[in-house]
Amino acid sequence: MSITLADARVVTPDGVHEGWLTIEDGRITHVGQGAAPGPGLDLAGRYVVPGFVDIHNHGGAGGSFPSGDLAQARTAADLHSRHGTTTLVASLVTASLDDLASAAAALAELCEDGLLAGIHFEGPYIAAARCGAHDPALLREPSPRELARLLRAGRGHVRMVTLAAELPGALDTVREAVAGGVIAALGHSDASYEQTIAGIDAGGSVATHLYNAMPPLHHRDPGPIAALLQDERVTVELINDGVHLHPAMTRLAFTTAGPARTALITDAMAAAGMGDGVYGLGPMSVNVIDGVARLAEGGAIAGSTLTMDVAFRRAVREVGLSMTEAAEISSLTPARVLGLDDRLGSITVGRQADLVVLSDDLEVSGVMRRGSWITEPR
Ligand SMILES: [Zn+2]
C-alpha cells in the first residue's frame, strides 16, 4: 500500500521543503519538492517532522513504567504516541533490586512486541546528595555484578543505565554497562569536573537531564555540567518544559553541544496528559499542582508532565531554534544515541515512516508510526 502526503512543509535534515512524500510498506520511498506527481492526502501546507524519539520517560495518562504493570505501560505509551513519540524508552526509578528486575522482565515483553524501544535504569547507583525524587533508602553502591543481574532480567532490552561517576565502583560499572551494549549515562551526581571526565573516559556517553540533579556551573569549580557539555563523546539530555530549565540554559546547552549532541527528553511521569492530583513515581508519592510534579515530602521536582510535542514547540518558540534544529534534537540525535539513526529519526528515503504532522502553530494534527496512522490528520 502506498500513501502520498501532498502540499506539505517537509522538515528534512537539510531544510524545510514545500513538497510531498510517499510511504510504502512502512518506509519513506520518495521525498519531492513542489506538486506531488499523483493523488495524495492534501496537508494544506502543514509541517511534517520525523516522529519524536524520547529516551527518558517514566509514564503518562496515569500509567507508570516503574510499576512494571503492562496495562499501565501500554496506557502511557499510547498517550505519548498520540503526542508524536514514535520511539520510546521506558525509564525505571530507584527501587529494590528484586522490584527492578521484575519490572525490567515485564517491560522486556513490550520491547519484544515493538511497543517500547528499550528500558532505562535511572538509579539505584546515584548520589544521595542529588537523588531528587528517588528514594534515598534504596540507593546502592554501583556493582558490575549486580548490574549484570539486572541486565539479564531485561533479556537484552536494557538500553541505558544512569549512575553517578563519583561513587565507589562506578567506573567499573560504567565499563560493565558499555561491554554489555548498554549506554552509560552520567547524572544524579555530585561529581567534580575531574570525576565526571573519568566517568566519560570509562565510557559514559549521555548526560541524564543536564543541569538537573547535579551541582550548578561555578567559575572556579566547573563540576559535571562543564565536563558533559564540552566533551564530544557526550550527548546531553534536556527537559525543555520551562520548569526544569530556563530557556536561556537550554539555549546555552544547544549552542555549546550543538544539535548532534543535544537530545530533548520528557522525563514524564504518570501525570503527563492528566490533571493535577496525587500520583506515584516508583515508591514515592508525588503531588502535581499546575502541571508541576513535586515530591509530597520535601518538594523536590519529581519528573515532568511534558510530552515531546510541547518540548518541540517550546524549542522553536521559547528557545528560538529552527524547525530543522528542533527536529534534529527531538528525533535524529536521540535515535543516534540508541544506535537507530540508520533506521529512523529523519525524513530521508529508506527510513521508517515515523512522522508527525504539525499545524502552523505546531500542534499535533497527525501521527504515523511505521507507515500506519496513530492519529490521521483531518
Ligand atoms: Zn527520570
Task: Explain how this protein is built.
- The protein is α/β, with parallel strands linked by helices.
- Helix content is 27%, strand content 29%.
- The chain is built from 9 helices and 21 strands.
- The chain has helices at residues 70-82, 97-112, 144-153, 170-179, 193-202, 223-230, 247-257, 308-317, 323-337, and strands spanning 2-12, 15-24, 27-33, 41-42, 47-50, 52-57, 59-60, 63-64, 85-92, 118-122, 158-163, 183-186, 204-207, 235-239, 262-265, 277-281, 284-289, 292-295, 355-358, 364-369, 372-375.
- The strands form 4 sheets. Strands 1, 2, 3, 4, 5, 19, 20 and 21 form an 8-stranded mixed beta sheet that branches. An 8-stranded parallel beta sheet has the order 6-9-10-11-12-13-14-15. Strands 16-17-18 form a 3-stranded antiparallel beta sheet, with no helix packed on it.
- Bound molecules: zinc ion (ZN).
- Zinc ion binds at residues 56, 58, 91, 122, 267, 303.
Task: Draw up the topology in text.
Elements: E1 2-12, E2 15-24, E3 27-33, E4 41-42, E5 47-50, E6 52-57, E7 59-60, E8 63-64, H1 70-82, E9 85-92, H2 97-112, E10 118-122, H3 144-153, E11 158-163, H4 170-179, E12 183-186, H5 193-202, E13 204-207, H6 223-230, E14 235-239, H7 247-257, E15 262-265, E16 277-281, E17 284-289, E18 292-295, H8 308-317, H9 323-337, E19 355-358, E20 364-369, E21 372-375
Parallel strand pairs: 1-4, 1-5, 6-9, 9-10, 10-11, 11-12, 12-13, 13-14, 14-15
Antiparallel strand pairs: 1-2, 2-3, 5-19, 7-8, 16-17, 17-18, 19-20, 20-21
Helix pairs in contact: 2-3, 3-4, 5-6, 8-9
This protein binds zinc ion.
